């Protein structure tokens, strides 16, 4: 069964550094998402991406964040100048359509900012 | 902004007891999805409800969508250890999924 993959599984970085989290969505999916989950808390929507541009973003997704689809398979989340409060699990998801279509989640990248 | 409130935050049950989680939206939803996240895992899609008043069952799980399409519930009958995890509802409004905070199902030892 096709699945969403994410790398790395765990990333440790120092405060102020930039990180890039990588995702490979399911190949025939058209919509891509990033979510954040601080340990033990709710899943928070960050951004959705379609047709090589951002379609929706939350208040969390400020200028510190950016997304990119650098080639036909990868979907990346860049966090500039990381802060301690960016420590969380970051999930990538993809779907065939928007809204009524189920989202398939990757296993997540645990980001630890020290 | 649009919100989906989900309660309770936690529910402790003895194995074999029932479990219920409720979601309420501040706005009318076009549909609602339910996901389960096992401890240490990622959210996994369970089901989607679209029609007003819809009820769907998956074995011991019963999902309901309110008549006004603003609330939903998930009921698990006779919980088992495999049911442990956090259950999230996610309501769709204007093509965006708005997630509830989740209800964590804990089985008492």
Subunit arrangement of the protein: heterodimer
Hey, roughly how much beta strand do the residues of chain A contain? over 45%
Largest sheet of chain A: 7 strands, mixed
Number of helices of chain A: 0
Series of H and E elements of chain B = EEEEEEEEEEE
Fraction of residues in H or I helices of chain B:
under 10%
Class from helix and strand fractions of chain A: mainly beta
- Measured between the Cα atoms of the first and last residue of chain B, the distance is 40 Å
- Radius of gyration of CA atoms of chain A, rounded to a whole number: 13 Å
Q: Whole-number radius of gyration of chain B?
A: 13 Å
Main β-sheet of chain B, in a few words? 6 strands, mixed
The proportion of strand residues of chain B reads: over 45%
Per the principal axes of the C-alpha atoms, what is the gross shape of chain B?
globular
Q: Number of DSSP strands of chain B?
A: 11
Order of helices and strands of chain A: EEEEEEEEEEE
Structural class call of chain B reads mainly beta
Structural commentary:
The complex is a heterodimer of chains A (114) and B (109). Chain A is built from no helices and 11 strands. Chain A is mostly beta strands and 114 residues long. In chain A, strands 2, 4, 5, 6, 9, 10 and 11 form a 7-stranded mixed beta sheet that branches. The N and C termini of chain A lie far apart (37 Å). The model of chain A has no long low-confidence stretch (mean pLDDT 94). Chain B has strands spanning 4-7, 10-13, 19-25, 31-37, 44-49, 55-58, 61-65, 71-76, 85-93, 96-99, 103-107.
